[in-house]
Amino acid sequence: DSGVTQTPKHLITATGQRVTLRCSPRSGDLSVYWYQQSLDQGLQFLIQYYNGEERAKGNILERFSAQQFPDLHSELNLSSLELGDSALYFCASSVGVRLDNTGELFFGEGSRLTVL
Amino acid sequence: AQSVTQPDIHITVSEGASLELRCNYSYGATPYLFWYVQSPGQGLQLLLKYFSGDTLVQGIKGFEAEFKRSQSSFNLRKPSVHWSDAAEYFCAAYSGYSTLTFGKGTMLLVSP
Asked: Which of A15, A51, A55, A70 lies 20 to 30 A from A32 at CA?
């Protein structure tokens, strides 16, 4: 158990809909990262938040947004869903804003999104 | 562009045989390097990491990796594979900016 909690574990929805994925980081971790894992693209970094502020952006679509709340949990919002958005979405957390000291990301078990 | 390449999509190894998974990186300067493992239905777990110093790094579950600067490689090895090692293995790099960049993974199958 990594200490990172993601809900829901599975989600099935239709094209055009909007969903919200939730992540609680490990106790004491201030950074939250979102990754998308698909068969063709592999693990793609979407976005990082540190202590409530956006710190880095990766390949995140404009239809996607995220935020980190004062209690440090994070939500990833996916809207106007398309078939190609079907994927496993991982949340990860780390202690600091950079990975230099420990270099370790702690991953949740993921939320599997299926868009029909 | 910075990238991590894992040339092998699938590898099948007999139980008890040795294992080597390949990883190459393309960065301007040597990044920090990592190997993660993903078991079915699970998140990724860190096996080992290389920051600097000794080029042979020991990790959990009996894995080790060797950093070779001349070959821009960071290959993962295990002397004797167990059936429970069947999983997907990801090599990753960190250059000091943002977060880890992952390779596309190598699926390890273990045959009896």
From this structure: A15
Distance from CA of A4 to the nearest CA of B (A): 10
Judged by a CB distance cut-off of 8 A, whether residue B4 touches chain A is: no
In this structure, the dihedral spanned by the alpha carbons of residues B34, B39, B44 and B48, taken in order and rounded to 10 degrees, is -30
Please tell me which of the candidates A58, A99, A108 has its beta carbon nearest to residue B43: A108
For residue B20, is pLDDT > 70? yes
DSSP string, A58-114: -S--TTEEEEE-TTS-EEEEE-S--GGG-EEEEEEEESSSSSTTT---EE---EEEE
pLDDT of residue B14: 97
Determine phi and psi for B29, rounding to 5 degrees. Answer: -120, 160
pLDDT at B1: 73
What is the mean pLDDT of the segment spanning B68-90? 96
Beta-bridge partners for B73? B24, B68
> Are the C-beta atoms of B95 and B1 separated by less than 8 Å?
no
State the residue for tokens 């190459």. Answer: B24
Interface check for B94 against chain A (CB to CB < 8 A): the answer is yes
> What's the full length of chain A, in residues?
116
**pLDDT value for B74:** 97
Residue B72 reports pLDDT greater than 70: yes
